[in-house]
Design a protein that fits this description.
Elements lengths: L9 H14 L4 E5 L5 E2 L3 E2 L6 H7 L7 E4 L7 E5 L4 H7 L4 H8 L4 E4 L3 H9 L4 E3 L6 H18 L8 E3 L1 H10 L3 H24 L6 H14 L4 E2 L4 E4 L20 E6 L1 E3 L2 E2 L2 E6 L6 H20 L6 H19 L6 H6 L26 E2 L2 E2 L7 E4 L2 E4 L13 E4 L2 E5 L4 E3 L8 H7 L6
Parallel strand pairs: 1-7, 5-6, 7-8
Antiparallel strand pairs: 1-4, 2-3, 4-5, 9-12, 10-11, 11-14, 12-13, 15-16, 17-20, 18-19, 20-21
Helix pairs in contact: 1-2, 5-6, 8-9, 10-11
The structure holds glycine and manganese (II) ion (2 copies).
Length: 443
């Protein structure tokens, strides 16, 4: 596969490294590249760099490590593959140590083959190192060898194995608080995603296939600069929408069904995450309208509630509470609301959470609780709001007219000092707007 240099300014990554160094508190940090995935020996899957690795380097090649040693010389050290003209003929350009040193503003760059030897030297004297295990098996083995060698080098001088701390949780704190660089990339990913959803709405009419709708999304994503999708497309017509991670996307869209689309473009490693649900014919049936308007009102109310200092936990509870009201109103569950929620009966129709952090990973890093306490959502944090209601076709306990209806409405939000900004507000979601736009494209 061909490797390219990130189109982003290397200063962005240098600034990030500087920011995280201050938080390391004397510990060292090791970040490994994403493992290379190979299928059938010869066929290489599309490679995407590990988000943490990209976040701190902008370097997109596999078989690489970053080691950071706060305040030491060298402070930022990258390990990369050597240049190899023969392999590059097959797989594409490699920077090699010299090229990487020039392009990525590192203090030192070594060949990956020297990782073990150099890293032992680089980590001498450290008592703690941040590293994320179990993401890359080969990298884990190398790091383990380094730690064992360091322990042996100390002999009986009293040091045990160096303490390993979790790099994901550590870096998650930084990735959670988006700065201007992060925000501009995420906004762009959201804009590309939103424009594609609008195009898909216009394209949809009875008889098109889910895959054709996917093609419209993909066309718009790539024509507008997306590198990839942030997650697999969910293009779910009719009852397919009640399977949360449906991604066969191979059915014909039928006149009387709804279409649920959950799709997001990735731009500079940031991902949009939008869901819209709308009638394939352009006109909601009375039953669809009841469910859709119910979910929409809840989604709008949740967004209206957003301001810095609120807790995600409260949003989850609000969504469960309001969606249970809706289930009672629709005759999906019965009894006292409190009892329905307490016995988790509402999970049958609303089995997921109300949202998640959004960023370089669609379910972005960053913890929701700190020492068991919910963390307040601060200005600069970005996340989704995505209530939904799903009534499977074969649910004989549900009113017949509601069976096979699945609705989710999902927008991407940035918390601001005074409230929030819905980055994906360009995609229609009121019944009136939707009925006006669906199916209006010339075929
Ligand atoms: N598309 C993944 C999610 O909505 O969380
Ligand atoms: Mn989502
Ligand atoms: Mn989604």
């Amino acid at each position: 596969m061909t490797m390219r240099k990130s189109t982003e300014n290397p200063e962005i990554f240098k600034r990030r490294r500087k920011k995280i160094v201050a938080g390391l508190n004397g510990a060292a940090l090791i970040v490994a590249s994403h493992p290379e995935q190979i299928r059938n020996d010869d066929v290489h899957h599309f490679y995407r760099q590990d988000s943490n690795m990209y976040y701190l380097t902008g370097f997109e090649e596999p078989e690489s490590f970053l080691v950071i040693r706060p305040g030491k010389t060298p402070e930022s050290v990258l390990f990369v593959r050597e240049k190899n003209i023969e392999r590059e003929t097959w797989d594409g350009f490699r920077f090699g140590p010299e090229g990487a040193q020039k392009e990525f503003l590192m203090d030192a760059v070594y060949p990956i083959e020297e990782f073990q030897k150099q890293c032992i030297e680089l980590l001498k004297g450290y008592e703690e190192v941040y590293y994320r295990q179990y993401k890359n098996k080969d990298a884990d083995q190398l790091v383990e060898k380094v730690l064992l060698a360091l322990k042996q080098a100390y002999g009986r001088s009293g040091y045990g194995l160096m303490t390993l701390k979790d790099a994901d949780s550590f870096l998650g704190e930084f990735r959670l608080r988006k700065d201007e660089d992060d925000i501009s990339n995420l906004r762009k990913a959201c804009q590309i995603s939103a424009d594609a959803h609008v195009a898909a709405m216009k394209f949809t009419k009875p008889g098109v296939t889910e895959r054709q709708v996917q093609a419209v999304l993909a066309y718009n994503f790539y024509m507008n600069g997306a590198a990839r999708v942030g997650y697999p497309y969910i293009i779910a017509s009719g009852n397919n929408a009640t399977t949360l991670h449906y991604n066969f996307n191979d059915q014909v869209c039928k006149k009387d069904d709804l279409l649920l689309i959950d799709a997001g473009a990735e731009y500079n490693y940031y991902s949009g995450d939008i869901t819209r649900t709308y009638p394939i014919s352009g006109q909601f049936t009375a039953a669809q309208k009841k469910v859709y308007q119910g979910v929409l009102t809840i989604q709008q109310d949740l967004i209206a509630y957003l301001k810095p200092g609120i807790f995600f936990k409260d949003l989850h509870e609000m969504a469960a509470d309001r969606l249970t009201d809706l289930m009672l109103e629709l005759g999906l569950v019965s009894g006292r609301k409190e009892d329905v929620i307490k016995s988790n009966q509402h999970r049958k129709y609303y089995p997921h959470g109300v949202g998640h952090w959004l960023g370089m990973d669609v379910h972005d890093s960053g913890v929701y609780f700190i020492n068991g306490e919910p963390r307040p959502v601060e200005a600069g944090m970005t996340f989704t709001i995505e209530p939904g209601l799903y009534i499977p076709q074969n649910d004989m306990s549900a009113p017949a007219e509601l069976r096979g209806i699945g609705v989710r409405i999902e927008d991407d939000i940035i918390m601001t000092a005074n409230g929030c900004d819905v980055m994906t507000s360009g995609v229609p979601k009121t019944i009136e707007e939707i009925e006006k736009i669906v199916g209006t494209a010339a075929h």
